[in-house]
């Protein structure tokens, strides 16, 4: 039996079967390609930790990510903040939330999205990883505050403590891992069964994955030890004990019997008594309360929508349109692409003002969006996926031109004309990149031919002469 309080976290790797380590390496490398912390989150964290950074630096970083910015505004104005002043801008939100809460919010939002979408989340072997992660993170931070331990380290490790549950099913099979988890639902019994069957447990897999993401060694070690290490009762330091304690409390609230041996070790390591369990339980249940009302799910759904939508027009933004169009072409085995460009749009802005230009773009988006899956590629350029062949795309172009002429009648406002280029699969290729290249060439040809027209792969057609296509 190891000492009650080991002082060295590093040897967690020594207990991993080398054969098992090699067997999970591929799955870890694959997951490592999708880091839980994206560039925006890492930038926000770095700025929060940099005492020389200014509020302006944070605002600039946040405004590069509409999803996170919207999340911050909602959090700063939530009932949980209980602040009498409501933030109307990102700058106000940064001032109201504060650096410490902003840092944690960035981590929570990123981890929640990553785990919610992860393959296997919700199965018996994983459970609701995204909800459990937030619960344990909140409890870990509260335990750290009570035990005078680094709360930021405990919070991050609490968020990621169970990521190894994504690795084992990818290597040893979902059915096998589900069956093992039903026989050994939680705690030391589960990790012991995993080691006996696979040569490695989910805590060790999580630590290896954390290392592959480039996270601090301390965080990886905490993840590896969160079930007590090789003996099941090891708490090498206070940060480990915080995550262990929060995980035990979260399990107790879900009806799992507490691991009393490890619980005693955690409390002793932190110099706390059992009275602290009520404090942690209150923090852990905050996630459950939010989820019961659906607020957390609605918040994430709204953030997802914002990350996919062009702010001005309400159409799919460039990234989302490319992603969904590529999938649709593969699923349907074909389709046609229209690239739509507003002729002389710069002159519209110069003569009528940018506000009028924005109104033109929103009205064009409304018209174009009626005829297929539309997106704004940027500026005054739109894209449209039309189900079907070139003939159907030509008909869509004809209708768009007719409706634009009707809405923007001469003498009633700015004169708006469109140039279009079209390509279709499989005529011009099967990949979206090939179709976009062909459509771009056709659009350029339309402009060279005098604008206010559409061209399909070298065949010109006008709104009043569709047969020419």
TrEMBL record:
GO MF: diguanylate cyclase activity
Superkingdom of source: Bacteria
Listed Gene3D superfamilies: 3.30.70.270, Hypothetical protein af1432
Domain GGDEF: 333-459
Residues of the HDOD domain: 34-229
InterPro entries associated with the record: Diguanylate_Cyclase, GGDEF_dom, HDIG_dom, HDOD, Nucleotide_cyclase, Rev_trsase/Diguanyl_cyclase
Cross-referenced Pfam families: GGDEF, HDOD
PANTHER family in the record: DIGUANYLATE CYCLASE DGCM-RELATED, REGULATORY COMPONENTS OF SENSORY TRANSDUCTION SYSTEM
Protein name: HDOD domain-containing protein
Species classification: Bacteria, Bacillati, Actinomycetota, Thermoleophilia, Solirubrobacterales
């Amino acid at each position: 039996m190891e000492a009650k309080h080991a002082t060295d976290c590093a040897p967690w790797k020594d207990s991993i079967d080398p054969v098992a380590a090699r067997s999970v390496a591929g799955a870890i490398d694959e997951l490592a390609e999708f880091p839980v912390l994206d560039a925006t989150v890492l930038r926000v964290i770095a700025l929060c930790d940099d005492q020389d950074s200014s509020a302006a630096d944070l605002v600039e970083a946040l405004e590069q990510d509409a999803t996170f910015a919207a999340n911050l505004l909602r959090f700063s104005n939530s009932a949980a903040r209980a602040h009498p002043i409501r933030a109307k801008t990102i700058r106000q939100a940064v001032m109201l939330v504060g650096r410490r809460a902003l840092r944690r919010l960035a981590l929570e939002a990123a981890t929640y999205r990553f785990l919610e979408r992860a393959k296997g989340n919700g199965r018996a072997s994983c459970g609701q990883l995204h909800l459990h992660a937030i619960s344990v993170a909140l409890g870990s931070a509260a335990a750290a505050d009570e035990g005078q331990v680094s709360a930021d380290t405990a919070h991050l490790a609490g968020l990621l403590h169970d990521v190894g549950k994504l690795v084992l099913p990818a290597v040893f099979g979902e059915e096998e891992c589900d069956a093992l988890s039903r026989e050994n639902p939680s705690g030391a019994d589960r990790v012991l069964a995993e080691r006996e069957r696979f040569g490695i447990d989910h805590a060790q897999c999580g630590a290896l994955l954390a290392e592959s993401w480039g996270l601090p060694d301390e965080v990886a070690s905490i993840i590896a030890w969160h079930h007590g290490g090789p003996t099941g009762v090891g708490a090498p330091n206070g940060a480990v004990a915080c995550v262990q304690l929060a995980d035990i409390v979260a399990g107790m609230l879900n009806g799992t019997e507490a691991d009393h041996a490890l619980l005693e070790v955690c409390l002793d390591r932190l110099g706390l008594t059992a009275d602290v369990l009520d404090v942690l339980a209150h923090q852990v249940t905050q996630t459950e309360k939010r989820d019961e009302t659906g607020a957390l799910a609605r918040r994430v759904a709204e953030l997802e929508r914002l990350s996919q939508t062009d702010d001005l027009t309400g159409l799919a933004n460039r990234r989302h349109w490319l992603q969904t169009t590529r999938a649709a072409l593969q699923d349907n085995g074909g389709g046609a692409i229209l690239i739509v460009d507003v002729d002389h749009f710069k002159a519209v802005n110069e003569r009528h003002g940018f506000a009028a230009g924005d109104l033109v773009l929103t009205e064009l988006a409304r018209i174009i969006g009626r005829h297929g899956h539309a997106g704004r590629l940027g500026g005054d350029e739109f894209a449209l996926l039309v189900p079907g062949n070139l003939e159907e795309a030509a008909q869509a172009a004809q209708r768009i031109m007719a409706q634009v002429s009707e809405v923007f009648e001469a003498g009633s406002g700015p004169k708006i004309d469109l140039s279009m280029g079209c390509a279709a699969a499989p005529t011009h290729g099967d990949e979206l990149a090939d179709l976009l290249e062909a459509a771009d060439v056709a659009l350029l040809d339309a402009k060279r031919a005098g604008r206010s027209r559409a061209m399909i792969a070298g065949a010109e057609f006008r709104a009043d002469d569709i047969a020419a296509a």
